[in-house]
Write a structure and sequence with these properties.
alpha+beta
Length: 670
């Protein structure tokens, strides 16, 4: 079974061209719009995102030897106590009374529904480990055997010899048998009915190779590995989504098995349509393990899998009480922060605060900032993931060219670089060697250059080999200057807002492109209308500065606009019905990002995602604050050196965008 792919969107170039053509008339159209109507239409060509945004959250989990209700609850609460956001928890194997019978073991989880409800109240999703194997000692084995629900071997035996695997001896379910699949799904209902959000589907599918010429009465010809893997993962994915459209499964895209020194077998596990929150298998808790994970990610990207991450710090257990070093954990976490899924779990210790020496908070502070960086990318990743799914590509775009035969199973472990683009507008250069202090890379061409995600004062030219310091807890990650970047901001840790930004969409332009061309960004949504944001910046003929028009189609949430490396003289906002000239405060830096020159009153508590029509804002309410700052000595973004010069910026927000919004910034000096 395979989910249908939505119709392909119009190419981005067409969207950009349309936006450019429409912009000249947009301001006049907004002014002339009848009361109560939106002048800024949602683009009907933008399909909804094909999966829920929690695919891009921070997931954590405990290994099976530690996993029970008390420990899982305490684990999530500990992250919250350290002010680290968690979006999902994976409950590892051995949670049920039998392997894959889906009956909760109440000696470990006395109230699984209560646990799920408790997690949901904290906005934490819950997934459960599962596979396609039924063990001989599982309570549901006898019924499956009696009814012929297993894959058959080459001798056409309805109950072939059990396969030895890492959790005992079992036989693979026949997903081609509709009666067997219905029986299986009725058991999934036992946990889906209590609100479980999906499954971590582990890799038992390769065991199909142990049956010479495996077969099924319901499948024509030999059941190939590809046939079985597609059926197994597809069944979990499709049925979970049938029960809950927001459900996800965590499954492998590509995993590798070392054959001999320098050569591995790279195997595709899941069908592409099921991998929005994949992980690239189990690695050692070492820097070579991190290299293995990066290699698997490159192969997954080359083969067009949409979204995936890896077990931060490595799944397997290493030496010592913690099982891995703090340096490795943070280097791996930095990679995870700039993958579509950031997930952390495995054997022994993975909690960052456990790696801090007495009196130190180095690891937990760095990890918290990395999680914040990951969450800021949520809207960007969701949009990029939707586009990638429609275009049969990956969110991750390796800089290294695709091998001549990327689909060949046996490949040399020969990588010229692990650098990659995360979507079209972020460049990432992983640090994967112990004791590294610097990183060397070549940024892709971009006439306006690139800015550092971790130091907004630092910009770099494209198409040039660059060497930078790589402090522990960061990663060389750079955004495209001139692009329109959507951010989900809720902390001050990256310098793009603070808690008052939560619930709003922040649009960041670092170094506006003032050549009169339109720059657009799709804003895909899973459970609401998708939207389009764009800007046009035109230089003034009289040398008075440029005029920058930022437009957002109806969004259902507030908007904050940050134009960085720029100053302005005036700001005006229209929302399709009302117009407001914003009072533009000035100072050495915006209060959210540094010491304020004048008192700053933060915006009210975050608006709900949807606002009732009767609650439409007044014209005066369109401008919560507007600020134009100029550089000053003594401000720096984390972890910039002390005394680094700050960067000029214009900040406007929160602007209600229920009916769309048009923000005109004049006197722009960039």
């Amino acid at each position: 079974p395979q989910a249908s792919v939505p119709p392909r969107m119009r190419s981005l170039s067409v969207v950009l061209a349309a936006a450019g053509a429409a912009f000249a008339a947009a301001w006049a159209t907004a002014a002339a719009a009848p009361a109560g109507r939106s002048a800024f239409r949602s683009p009907s060509s933008l399909a909804a995102a094909p999966y829920a945004p929690w695919a891009h959250h921070h997931w954590v989990w405990l290994s099976s030897d530690q996993s029970n209700q008390a420990n899982v609850t305490a684990y999530v609460e500990e992250y919250a106590a350290h002010n680290i956001t968690v979006g999902a928890v994976d409950i590892d194997s051995m949670w049920s009374t039998g392997v894959n019978n889906f009956v909760v073991d109440t000696t470990k989880f006395p109230d699984m529904k209560g646990l799920v409800d408790q997690m949901h109240a904290k906005s934490v999703r819950v997934i459960l480990w599962a596979t396609s194997m039924i063990d001989t000692d599982s309570p549901n084995y006898a019924e499956a055997a009696a009814k012929g629900y297993f894959v058959r071997n080459g001798l056409n035996e309805s109950t072939p010899d059990p396969i030895k695997w890492w959790h005992g001896h079992g036989i693979l379910l026949d997903y081609f048998n509709p009666e067997a699949t219905a029986w299986w799904n009725s058991q999934l209902d036992l946990v889906l009915d209590i609100g479980v959000d999906g499954f971590k589907t582990d890799g038992t599918d390769p065991f199909i190779a142990e049956y010479i010429f495996p077969q099924s009465p319901y499948h024509e010809g030999v059941v190939t590995y590809r046939d079985y893997a597609d059926a197994y993962y597809g069944s979990f994915f499709n049925y979970s989504r049938e029960r809950n459209p927001e459900a996800l499964i965590m499954s492998r895209p590509v995993d590798s098995f070392n054959l001999f020194d320098g050569v591995s077998a790279y195997l595709e596990f899941s069908p592409r349509y099921a991998v929005f929150s994949g992980w690239v298998g189990d690695q050692d808790p070492t820097f070579p393990g991190l290299v293995d994970a990066l290699g698997n990610m490159l192969h997954s990207a080359w083969r067009g899998y949409v979204g995936f991450g890896s077990d931060i710090g490595g799944y397997r257990s290493g030496h010592g009480q913690l099982g891995r070093t703090g340096e490795l954990l943070l280097r791996w976490a930095a990679v995870g922060a700039f993958c579509s899924l950031m997930e952390n779990g495995g054997d022994k210790e993975h909690r960052p605060w456990k790696f801090d020496a007495p009196g130190s908070t180095l690891h937990v502070d760095a990890y918290r900032r990395l999680v914040a960086a990951h969450y800021e990318l949520e809207q960007y990743l969701l949009t990029t993931g939707a586009q990638a799914f429609e275009s049969n590509v990956s969110i991750m775009r390796p800089i290294m060219p695709m091998p001549a035969d990327p689909f060949g199973i046996i490949q040399p472990d020969d990588y010229t670089t692990f650098d990659y683009m995360l979507g079209p507008d972020y460049f990432v250069s992983p640090v994967y060697k112990a004791n590294a202090t610097n990183a060397t890379f070549t940024l892709p061409p971009n006439p306006a250059g690139w800015f550092s995600v971790f130091d907004r004062t630092a910009t770099f030219p494209g198409n040039r080999t660059t060497v930078v310091q790589a402090p522990l807890g960061t990663i060389p990650a750079f955004g495209r200057r001139g692009a329109l970047l959507p951010l989900h901001v809720s902390t001050p840790l990256l310098g793009n807002g603070d808690e008052a930004s939560a619930g709003a969409l922040t649009l960041l332009v670092h170094g506006p492109r003032c050549d009169g061309s339109a720059v657009s960004a799709e804003l895909r949504a899973f459970d609401g209308p998708s939207a389009l944001a764009s800007y046009v910046c035109r230089s003034g003929a009289d040398g008075s500065g440029a005029t920058m028009d930022v437009q957002v189609s109806p969004l259902g949430r507030d908007v904050i606009v940050i134009v960085r490396d720029a100053q302005a003289s005036a700001v005006e906002v229209r929302d399709g019905e009302s117009t407001a000239a914003c009072s533009l405060a000035r100072g050495s830096s915006h209060p959210v990002f540094g010491p304020a020159a004048v008192p700053y009153k933060p915006a009210p508590a975050p608006m709900p995602a949807q606002r009732q029509a009767s609650e439409a804002p007044s014209a005066q309410g369109l401008c919560a604050s507007a600020w134009s700052s100029h550089p000053a000595v003594g401000e720096s973004g984390l972890p910039a050196a002390s005394g680094a010069a700050s960067v000029a910026e214009v900040v406007v927000g929160r602007v209600p965008a229920d009916r769309g919004a048009h923000i005109r910034i004049t006197g722009v000096i960039a």
